[in-house]
Amino acid sequence: MWKKLHQLAIPARLYQVCGALLPWLMVASALVLATGLIRGFGFAPADYQQGQSYRIIYLHVPAAMWSMGIYAAMALAAFTGLVWQLKMANLAVAAMAPVGAVLTFIALITGSAWGKPMWGTWWVWDARLTSELVLLFLYIGAIALWHAFDDRRLAGRAAGILVLIGGVNLPVIHYSVEWWNTLHQGSTRMQQSIDPAMRSPLRWAICGFLLLSVTLTLMRLRNLILLVDKHRPWVSELAARRGYS
Fold first, then answer.
1. What cellular-component terms does GO give this entry (predicted)?
2. What are phi and psi of 185, to 5 degrees?
């Protein structure tokens, strides 16, 4: 197992593995996400309290869930990169950051749209919303630090440190509705109290967002590997095989 993990730390090998997985992930993410969204927006019954407006959960809940999940994965990769000095771990942080930032932005926008009818305003400085906004700033900060240094090793270290420090925000987001008297509703759970006709599409959407996030991350990771190793012989050989000069 450790031998296989060590092989993934080799840029050329990781580039090859990502390339082999991507076609399957693209198809799977498209099918699963389409199934969840079509069933959620087109066939799930209306909510007895919120009517049709609740359907935004099929975008909001998966985006919010994986905005935190991706950051947790970034923190793990950042720790690995800082402790074991693995270049590919730092690249993984850089690859995940834009994907996580987009999901966080989607979660904030859809959350505001969902809350408008209930709160009477697009935004309130609620603990859950504010901590999610902080998460967006952390993503943007990691992206900015990655691009702030010409030295990729230094850039990866700086971004990794920020990501690890920002990890304290994750439990704040998750438990904010329990720790404080917030306007935001409690965390969405796959409880039996949820109508199965609503719960099933949500599960599909959550899985679809995960597959899409992994797909986009691997696509960006491959590009970053080529960027960082552009002067290495294997990249030159790859370019020659594809007809690039």
1. plasma membrane
2. -70, 165
Per-residue pLDDT tens over the stretch 22-78: 999 999 999 999 999 999 999 999 888 888 888 999 999 999 999 999 999 999 999
What is the secondary structure of 77-90 as a DSSP string? Answer: HHHHHHHH--HHHH
Amino acid identity of residue 97, one-letter, is: A
- Cβ contact 119:183 at 8 Å: yes
SS3 14: helix
Per the DSSP assignment, residues forming a β-bridge with 47 are: 51
pLDDT, mean of residues 135-147: 98
User: What is the Cα Rg of the chain in Å?
Assistant: 20
Backbone dihedral angles phi then psi of residue 137, each to the nearest 5 degrees:
-65, -35
Among 236, 207, 225, 214, residue whose Cα is nearest residue 40: 207
Comparing CA positions, the residue from 215, 165, 190 lying closest to residue 24 is 215
Spell out the residues 6+ positions from residue 202 whose beta carbon is closer than 8 angstroms to its own.
36, 40, 57, 58, 61, 62, 188, 190, 194
Tokens encoding 230: 């552009």
CA angle 97/99/102 to nearest 5° reads: 110
Q: Is 80 left (phi over 0), alpha (psi -120 to 50) or beta?
A: alpha
Token code pair at residue 75: 């923190």
- The rounded distance, in Å, linking the Cα atoms of 171 and 158 is 23
> Helix, strand or coil for residue 47?
strand
Question: For residues 152 and 68, what is the distance between their CA atoms, to the nearest angstrom?
Answer: 25
* pLDDT band at 195; cut points 50, 70, 90: confident
Distance CA 29, CA 51 (A): 29
